[in-house]
Amino acid sequence: MPASLVEIPFDERRIQIEYQWLRPERTQRPLVVFLHEGLGSVSMWRDFPRHFCEAGDYRGLVFSRYGYGRSTPRPHAEKWRPDFMHRQAREALPALFDALDIGPGRKHGVPWLMGHSDGGSIALIYAASFPQALDGITVLAPHIVVEDLSVRNIAATRQVYLDTDLRERLGRHHDDVESAFWGWNDIWLDPDFRQWDLRPLLSGLKCPGLAVQGEDDEYGTMAQIEGIHRYAPQTTLLKLARCGHSPHRDQPEALTQAAVRHINTHTSYLK
After folding, report:
1. SUPFAM superfamilies under this entry (predicted)?
2. Domain segments of the chain as ranges
3. How does the average pLDDT of the chain come out, rounded?
4. Which CATH class, in words, describes the domain spanning 4-270?
């Protein structure tokens, strides 16, 4: 199905969110909601969500967060605050689910979340904040603390954006590429953001979780997913060799096999 727009309330205004349903006719199958990375969008996922849903015989929902893709752009003078991922998880995502009739007792039922990078962190916050509102999570290269490695390579990405054709390449996926890039880059390099820390929330994770990290991840170390397991020991860890920050691009088959097994194992009517 082509992408559509839905209007939701956020930050005392109305914004439009780009979204796309995958295989919606599979009404009796689990729904997987895909949460993109810090520079991602519906189109930046490419074909992975569709292939994943076909492999597991799932329904899917892919969407672009505020400021990304074809969703309402962030005004250039508006700066993300250190709590921007908390606000996405606790305000924007519930509003989107309300608008699309997703959740307990609703038309599309309770979802699974699959989040990448910033999207993985948002999935963790949502799961800890609304434990009855989802069936489980898969997080790919999530952040739970700000590491020096992350800051160093995000600073390097800023220079790449200024010096190469990265702006043009990202512009294929975002209506306002300057808004998307600088919103992400500025907050991650803000000194105040160094204190950002999800660890106090993680003991609130009650759902089944799969946390995935590449051994060659340039934006985070294994301390990220190992920290999740320390506070939420029901979380299964998957460490992938020959894999960087994007397991769905670098190791799609291994990720798909593990995540489908994870969902099917923890979905009662599929056992």
Report:
1. alpha/beta-Hydrolases (SSF53474)
2. 4-270
3. 97
4. alpha beta
